[in-house]
Predict the 3D structure of the following.
Amino acid sequence: MSPQAELVRQISAEAFTDAIDLMACLAVLREGKSLLVPHALEAANAALAATIVQKALLQRVLMTVERAFAPDNKRKLDRHARVAFQHLSDPNIFEEVAKAGSRKHLKQACAIWRNYDADPRRKRLKHYRDKVVAHTGVRDPAIPPPLVSELSSYAMGTADALARLARGTGVVELQLKVQTAAYDASAKAFWRVWRDQKKSK
């Protein structure tokens, strides 16, 4: 296998870990959404901590998403998703990688990633990441901050592209949903104590 094809496979394995992480963070956010300022959290003096947890998760999701679309600076050590997808734009490398995995999933991954890379929401997400999350700067007033719902849907699409990349290269065989089932259950359990206290009052 060529060095480029091997690099694509290595990146896809790391990308699958990012996909699981994105879906796990989204599960915790989703389950806690209805409990942002509940009675039980306030009574236990835990509402501020819960808000910090949710903000931290949103920032982690944003950073993970933006990492997948980071520019390729042509450094040999860069291993984010864009590097893999750029190599896959070479038909010879694509064919070499597809032989070891799934041509169907690889094509789907490339198409999804291209769509999200060109999505106008990226500009808002990247600007917010650059000026608020990763660095402290002055935001361009012409670029509105992204909505949480936009980030969540963008993260789900990104995770889908990364998971299909991993399946397409043959590095992973299981679907993302199978891998994240335990995280979904854990997210429910994490917030259940507050939901149960709310019901008991």
Remarks:
- The mean pLDDT is 90.
- Residues 3-196 form one domain.
- The chain has nine helices and no strands.
- The chain has one domain: 3-196.
